[in-house]
Amino acid sequence: MPAGKTNMTAPHWPALRLLALALSGAWLSSSAWAESYFNPAFLSDDEAGVADLSRFEKGNQQPAGVYRVDIWRNEEFIGAQDLAFTAAGGKPPTAGGLAPCITSSLLSRLGVNRAAFPALAKYATDTCVPLETAIPGSEAAFDFAAMKLSISLPQVAMLNSARGYIPPEEWDEGITAALANYSFSGSKGTNDDSYFLSLQSGLNYGPWRLRNNGTWNYSRNDGQHQNSWRNVATWLQRAIIPWKSELVLGDSNTGSDVFDSVGFRGGRLYSSDSMYPDSLQGFAPTVRGIARTPAKVTIRQNGYVVYQSYVQSGAFAISDLNPTSSSGDLEVTVDEKDGSQQRYTVPYSSVPLLQREGRIKYDLVAGDYRSGNNDQSTPFFAQGTLIAGLAGGFTLYGGTQLSERYTAVAIGAGKNFGDWGAISLDVTHARSQLADDSRHEGQSLRFLYAKSLNSVGTNFQLLGYRYSTEGFFTLDDTTWKTMSGYQYSDDQKDKDGVPDIISYHNLTMNKKGRFQVNVSQSLGRFGSLYVSGSEQSYWGTGDTNTWYQFGYSGGWRGVSYSLSWSWNRSVGIPGTDRIAAFNLSVPFSIFSPGEGALNRAYATVAASRNSDGDDSWQSGVSGTLLEGNNLSYSVTQGNASGRGATGSASANWQATYGTLGAAYNYDRDQHDFNWQAAGGILAHADGVTFSQPLGDTNVLIKAPGATGVSVENQTGVKTDWRGYAVMPYATVYRYNRVALDPNSMGNNTDIENNVSSVVPTEGAVVRAAFDTRIGVRALITVRRGAQPVPFGAIVRETSRGITSMVGDDGQIYLSGLPLRGELLIQWGDGAAEQCRAPYTLPEKSLQQAITLTEVRCDR
């Protein structure tokens, strides 16, 4: 064709060639998987312009090698793994002509009872096993497009393990790392300032976890300053995998299955529920309450401040509490904006102690008693408990506590009664010597019940009662240095400079009866009701520690509303708090459906009234902003008794390197500003990575060079400038899916596989590594002389090893290319059937979605 002329039919040739190729393959196929002959004449008039395509003659063939695939066993996901595949004729097209190399070690991971198949003994651990012949009735199917390997195994070939079982060989102890978690909050008012810092630091080395928790508190009130640092706990912990147990040395807390949880400094060895498949992961209590005004919520446990935050007026629920103990009463203080306070206790107990048949659970502790309260002594004590699951749905349990001034023995039983729920009943006999050296002996009877009435939507999360005789005391009671007294706050005082009262004890009024309840009732489309509370009575007085909260919530077409009422009273602390509250939220999206910030906003109304006749109401707007909805905001305006007009504005940002929050509140008499900042720091072999607040167990994402890539299902989490990020709150001893969002990758970033799976042990920092290709995405047209290089030729970039294949008209798509390099193109086995094409791309190519260029290929 003369120079300067255009072939108008050229654009139609690719489609015609592909059509001819498909027709020829279909005509030559004698069966679905028969051999095909590719006639180069259908692709080009010049057969020299087509590479040797004999490797495709056997159908949908893929090269043998190692592929990362998702493994499924009997329709259950097992995990992702690099697996070797070999060429296998006769395979269906979806398998790509490949057969998996299933080794003895993989069969063990799948839970196969290898001892039941003697033929498997002759195969080495890394030798491919002929699955269908070695295990009759088994089958393996591979979907190359989905990279999914489905393995079907007969039930008789499986070990008797629970569904979801992950063998310990797959548990990842994690990498060596140093970590720190911080939470800083502060408030600056008209006459006072306060600051609170919680710092959790640690070091991981192999299976060992070293941790330290500390808090700093500063306050200023009318010229008086208070400054204190407290070491909450320091401990060393590791998993004992063969025993399915955890070892803790240092400051920790006993379990709460049989006896009340207490703090200690010593050693603890106990069964780990999380190591067992489908077992309970434990729980943290949800602390509910009602704030009449913008308020500060402080939660203490065992004398330590474990949580402090600021809430807006109305009902609140704190569900992300990380207490220092696995159980134990939580003392909640709500400091209202008008200077008033609410105080109540939230009981934190476990559900009935049922275990599976054959399960043995133990807990051994020895050390000094530790409460964080200077009014209590630190005697040495030992404790042991044992829980055994028996046939017929029964569970037997018991234990003992021993110290110089205290001896207790407990025994109990539980049973699952099916439709009637689960019940446990136990009795504890104790001998005690109190602060006045008086000796006592008594018993305590405890009853616990749990049941879900799914047919009527009722859930008894916990319903329990404990009765104690007049001579019964706990280990905690015997540690008090005085028979009665108040515990005061070291860092919080009222406006007159008097320390706040935290708690009151009086051993002449020992515990008698305790009732606690947590029940919810679904009303279907009409909403739901709940009641939570507890009541503790004492010998020698008619007063009780009482706390109850009732609530109703519902919704209609996106509109949500709730009504709640709380009542609390404490022995030795004057006053009774009764508060009623109403909340309403209306989304703007019901007025103008669509996208945008307005459709993620809500109009809110809140009102409350307490037993003193004080009432307040607020109305405002709240919602989320930014592309990832990681910036939340709220603006309110209202009125309160005795304070006149009130208002507030708050915002919270879940950023890549932490979370930030700020709020401004005002009323007639004062203005104050409070803020919160929290985040994590992780130091590892590849450097230092900043993150949102860390969890107990974390995943370090490593994608070198992939900057600003979002992590799926993690609000605000993105890789930093080096390609690292931390995904907090991983589930221990379970598969955790870690996925990078491909839509957030830059034009110069490609990742071979954007999904990884990890199984961390308790407290581990596990690494999820991704193979990244940072460079240019380019569509390069390569010509050899006046002709394009042959169709189907193999292409390799010589410096990075990136491979591709030549398409129509010599076009080659490659990603991850350096700006300068060389392409090696081969269309046969001979030296004359290859050429090299050096190329140079402009700097701006790194910012382009795809770069188009043309180069020449010389021999």
Walkthrough of the structure:
The two termini are 25 Å apart. This protein is 3% helix and 52% strand. Among the domains are: 65-159, Ubiquitin-like (UB roll); 286-346, Immunoglobulin-like, CATH 2.60.40.3110; 377-576; 775-856, Immunoglobulin-like. Mean pLDDT is 81; it is low at 1-35, 279-284 and 323-328. The chain is mainly beta and 859 residues long. The strands form 10 sheets. It has a 24-stranded antiparallel barrel. A 5-stranded mixed β-sheet has the order 3-2-1-5-4, with no helix packed on it. The chain has a 4-stranded antiparallel β-sheet with strand order 14-13-16-17, with no helix packed on it. Belongs to the fimbrial export usher family. Keywords: Cell outer membrane, Fimbrium biogenesis, Membrane, Signal, Transmembrane, Transmembrane beta strand, Transport. Residues 37-185 form the PapC N-terminal domain.
Short description:
The chain has three helices and 53 strands. With 859 residues, it is mainly beta. A hairpin with a 2-residue loop joins strand 37 and strand 38 (687-691).
